[in-house]
């Protein structure tokens, strides 16, 4: 059970890292809203996580402390993608400030939700260590 909790915290840490990266990318989009030819970027961690969760097979475990462990989710990383779609603007920029601001708000909500989940798990682990369960 403890191993499952730590794996869950690791996945949530990766989600926080992806959210932090997405915030940087969205801020960059907003900063370049008037830059001619700029193409918006985004981070799509959710679809990668969904694909990982539906395709993962047996998780490897070690039977001896001298064995090298294999992290099943080591390849799960967030990547920045560029939206090369055409723009309605003559300068070639495809950033829509309303879309970006909505994405910033949505990203903040997701970040806060994951942070609350991690805090809850840590509180439960501390209670178990102290014997308060």
Task: Please outline the helices and strands.
Elements: H1 2-31, E1 41-43, H2 45-55, E2 80-82, H3 97-130
Antiparallel strand pairs: 1-2
Helix pairs in contact: 1-3
Strand content: under 5%
Strands of the biggest beta sheet: in what spatial order? 1-2
Tell me the series of helices and strands, N- to C-terminal. Answer: HEHEH
Shape verdict: elongated
The total tally of domains equals: 1
Structural class given helices, strands, pairing? Answer: mainly alpha
Report the biggest beta sheet as strand number plus sense, adding barrel if it closes: 2 strands, antiparallel
What is the helical fraction, as a range of percent?
55-70%
Oligomer: single chain
Radius of gyration: 20 Å
State the helix count: 3
Low-confidence stretches: none
What is the mean predicted local confidence, pLDDT?
A: 83
Tell me what the structure shows.
- This protein has one domain (2-130).
- It is 56% helix and 5% strand.
- It is built from three helices and two strands.
- A two-stranded antiparallel sheet has the order 1-2.
- α1 (2-31) runs antiparallel to α3 (97-130).
- The two termini are 15 Å apart.
- The model has no long low-confidence stretch (mean pLDDT 83).
Summary of the model, kept short:
This protein has helices at about 1-30, 45-55, 95-130; strands spanning about 40-45, 80. The chain has about 130 residues and is mainly alpha-helical. A two-stranded antiparallel sheet has the order 1-2.
Defining traits:
single chain, 133 residues, mainly alpha, two-stranded antiparallel sheet, 3 helices, 2 strands, 5% strand
